[in-house]
Amino acid sequence: MPFQSLPNETLYQIIHSLSSVQDVLSLSLTSHRLHDLISRPAFGPLYSAIAVCTHNASQPPHLPRPTPPQSLSLLRQLLHVGSVANVWADLYPSTHWSGTREESASRRFLKSSERYRLRRACYRIWLYSLAYHDFSYPRYTRRQPATMRLRAALLRGWSTAELADMIDLQGIMRKVLELHICPSNGTVVRRHKERHGEDSMPVVGNLFQTKYYRYRLATDPTCTMPPSGHCWEGWGDDVGHYYILEDMLKLNPGDIYQLYDFCAGNGKTGELIDAVDGWQTGSKKSVVETHIAGMGEWFVDNGQTLGETINLVVSERGEDEIDGVGAIVSEGVDLPGATIPL
Fold first, then answer.
1. H-state helical runs in 29-159
2. CA angle 252, 254, 260 (to 5 degrees)
3. Does a cis peptide bond (omega within 30 degrees of 0) precede residue 253?
4. What is the pLDDT of residues 19-53, one digit of tens each?
5. Pick from 44, 45, 59, 224: CA 20 to 30 A from residue 117's CA?
């Protein structure tokens, strides 16, 4: 059978069996079909991903950039940002359709066109974060007209529907932060009750070094030492917790996923623990706090500006503020696969 006549599933198996990035890149250049299989379904739109990989402070992000030459370095960066975008596409169903039994019953996988829109929103949030969520924009600059014009210039080139997709994905990131990375005190207590039922001992803290866990270990034979790096502390409640989430949403999708992988995964993610020993004492909060402290003083009490900038652009168009919840999976909004550009 001719190679080009093989079904897509077989071609994907061949692609995944390749041992090096150079081999994948070479194979993608042999035909239009293989180029589409390797690039578009997995990581497209590539022009948005390339904008993230090639961003630098020397040029405003809203200005068009020439297509960079193909290289292994660029491909590695595209693989990284594309993989992160696909992780968010995998997290979307369980995060969006959660809560009530009816919502959980409606859960489904995203269609290919919906994954494409989510990846596009992810790349654009990433680009905005790299451009406008750094030490160059401390708190006192967020309302300055010149800064607001710069931020809005990036968003004006995108349609209202595309901005709604960005708001939708940002809401998913907020939920992930709230549930897995920076849970409120109320969330910690609720999870404790779900796990331990009507426990007569008050929740003094979530570290196993606290008086509560030492007492449980001494008196309850069913209580075991929690694994290192798998304990929680609350991040406050109400207004204080809201502003913590606003600060954390300045992180780009890659940073948020890294923290999620640490907090909800195996607790030992890369550079998060290279210079931090807090995970060894059972406190994930201390690891996250140390990671955030490394961002600098500008990061604290300086919430994200994406939401207000989107509403500014939408108001300039004479439209109402965007809710955005469920925009990516809303019925009647679809992009035929044949018309999706690279």
1. 32-43, 46-53, 72-96, 101-105, 112-132, 145-155
2. 105
3. no
4. 776 787 788 888 888 877 776 557 878 889 999 99
5. 59
Q: Which helix (H) or strand (E) holds 55?
A: none
Instruction: Assess whether pLDDT exceeds 60 at residue 152.
Output: yes
Cα distance between the two ends of the chain: 29
**Residue 53: count of CB within 10 angstroms of its CB:** 20
Neighbours of 70 (CB within 10 A): 11
Instruction: Kindly report the length of the chain.
Output: 342
Cα–Cα distance for residue pair 81/50, rounded to 1 Å: 9
CA distance 252 to 133: 9
> What is the spatial distance between Cα 35 and Cα 57, in angstroms, rounded to a whole number?
31
233 within 8 A of 283, measured Cβ to Cβ: yes
Write down the pLDDT at residue 338.
33
- Do residues 195 and 234 lie in contact, with contact meaning Cβ atoms separated by under 8 Å? no
Q: Which residue has the tokens 């909060």?
A: 285
- For residues 77 and 84, give the distance between their C-alpha atoms in angstroms, rounded to a whole number: 11
Residue 270 has pLDDT above 90, yes or no: no
pLDDT digits 0-9 by tens, 234-245: 888 888 999 999
- Helix and strand counts by DSSP (H, E) for the chain: 15, 0
Identify residue 303 by its one-letter amino acid code. G
Q: Is the pTM of this model over 0.90?
A: no
pLDDT tens column, 272-319: 544 444 444 446 888 888 889 888 999 999 999 999 999 999 999 999
